[in-house]
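Async update (no meeting this week)

Hi team, since we skipped the sync, here's where things stand on the single-chain job. The sequence we agreed to prioritize is pasted below, unchanged from the tracker. I ran it this morning and attached the output directly underneath so nobody has to dig for it. Comments welcome in thread, and please keep replies under the output.
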Amino acid sequence: MTDTGLQFDHAEHVTPASGATCGFCKQPIATTYFEINGQVACPRCRGQIMAAWNRSSPGRRFGKALGLGAMAALLGAGLYFGIEALTGYEFGLVAVVVGLLVGGAVRKGSNGRGGWRYQALAMFLTYSAVAATDSSLIAREISKDFRARTASVSASADSSTVASAPHRALATGQEHPGWIAITVGLVVVLALAYIAPILIGVSSPLHLVIAGFALYEAWKMNKGVALRVTGPYQAVAPSAAA
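Output:
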């Protein structure tokens, strides 16, 4: 049986006669069949679907969803940077692609179960990818401005450096930021990175709308699915069906 991804969004109830086919493997129904969320399933497919549905523990499924989603988020961020580097333009719609990539990866990791935990995970990873790209673009612009300002005063800065070098060397040797200062600095940087999409959205509301749509796609792809299995049933013979 091919991998169906446990998708039952378009299920239709069918009472098959003899000669009907399984909705998953497309093989003929011989004598008995089951219904899985309204789709006809042969006994073999039913067993495989149940095994896939119950595979691993909830913790392992969540860990797998986290790993696959994180890789998809990195891939999406890299795609954003690659397009911007090749074209010189920033395409906000790439964020939607990131949402689709992350949402699909998280759903695969959950074995197609979905649910609020996976929806929250997919939205968090999608927003993290968007925040990483936005904050990097802001940091790059700040760096360009800083280099321009530094170059304009390089002559005076060089002369000041020579005069005060001994004093600065002594002061530098005495300054050792502790782990508390480093931790606080990292938290501040991380917080600024995560509010970057909002800061950009203040001046460009369309950017914020696109980011919101990306989060919605990641959320929608991981809606919870309940597995309903009934049967076994006997296939209707052709004479009886007639």
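Quick observations from my side:
The two ends are 31 Å apart (CA to CA).
Residues 116 and 224 are 7 Å apart (CA to CA).
Reply here if anything looks off.
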